[in-house]
Amino acid sequence: MSLELSPTFKYWLNFFHPVTMWILLALSLYAAYLGLQVQRTRNAQGDEKKELIKGKYNIKHHQIGSIILALMVAGAIGGMAVTYINNGKLFVGPHLLAGLGMTGLIAFSASLTPFMQKGANWARVTHILLNFALLGLFVWQAVSGVEIVQRILSKA
Q1: How high is the mean pLDDT of the chain?
Q2: Which contacts (CB < 8 Å, 24+ apart) does range 96-101 have?
Q3: Fewer CB under 10 Å: which end of the chain, C or N?
C-alpha cells in the first residue's frame, strides 16, 4: 500500500522539525536556568535556602527535562521521517549525525536522575557536563538547520 501525500502537505511538513527544535532550544535554555537554580538552592543556607525552596525549581527542572527528552526523541525521528518522505532518502551529514548524537546525550543525561536523587555527585557533574555539551551542539544544530531551511525555501 502506498500513501501518497499532496505536494503542499509535503512542503509544509518540512517546517515541523525546525519549529519543534527551536521551541526545544528555548526550553533547553529554560531547563538550564532551572538547573542552575536547583544548584543554587542546594548550596544556599538559612533564609536564602528557604526562599529558594519555595520556587520548586527541582520539580520544574524535572518536568521540563521530561518534556524536552520526549520532544527531542520525537523531533529527531520526525525530522528523519519528513526528510525520507520528501526525498526518498536521508542525507547523512553533520546535521543528522549531530542530531542523533544529541538524542543519545539527552537520554544518557536523563538516565543519571536516579543516581543524582541518591546524592551521587559524579552523576550530577556528568549530567551538567553532558547538558552543556548538548546545548553547544543544539546551538550549532540551529544554525545548520537554518541553512537547510533556506535551501528548502529557495527551491520552492
Answers
A1: 92
A2: 98/137, 98/140, 98/141, 98/144, 99/141, 100/76, 101/137
A3: N
